[in-house]
Amino acid sequence: MARPRLQLHEILTGITEHVYFQPPENIQMQYPCIIYSRNASSVDHANNDLYRHAKRYQVTVIDRDPDTPLTDMVEALEFCSFQRFFAADDLNHYVFYLFF
């Protein structure tokens, strides 16, 4: 079964102290940071019962340093995969998908 989101939040705050879940537009973020939000789920059934359920989160590492070690720490999490990179406003954005 899917694990609680707050458990994921605790894991991410172990990587960096600035972690935001679906931050509103008006929040002043501190960098480096991690932003995450739920964006999908995966469900498997067997014998007409729920066999496996996992929530998928989009996890974005934002840092001024293009060689930030935070990306390696996030990518090392179980069921995490790198999706894309982009730069905006002199900040580097690394986007991952994480099933949790």
Keywords:
alpha+beta, STM4215-like, 100 residues, 2 helices
List the helices and strands and how they pair.
Layout: H1 5-13, E1 19-21, E2 33-46, E3 49-63, H2 70-75, E4 80-88, E5 91-99
Parallel strand pairs: 1-2
Antiparallel strand pairs: 2-3, 3-5, 4-5
Summarize the structure.
The protein is an alpha+beta fold. Helix content is 15%, strand content 50%.
Please give a structural write-up:
With about 100 residues, the protein is an alpha+beta fold. It has one domain: 2-Layer Sandwich (STM4215-like), CATH 3.30.2000. The chain is about 15% helix and about 50% strand. It has two helices and five strands; from the N terminus they run H-E-E-E-H-E-E. It has a five-stranded mixed β-sheet with strand order 1-2-3-5-4. A hairpin with a 2-residue loop joins strand 4 and strand 5. The protein is elongated and about 50 Å long.
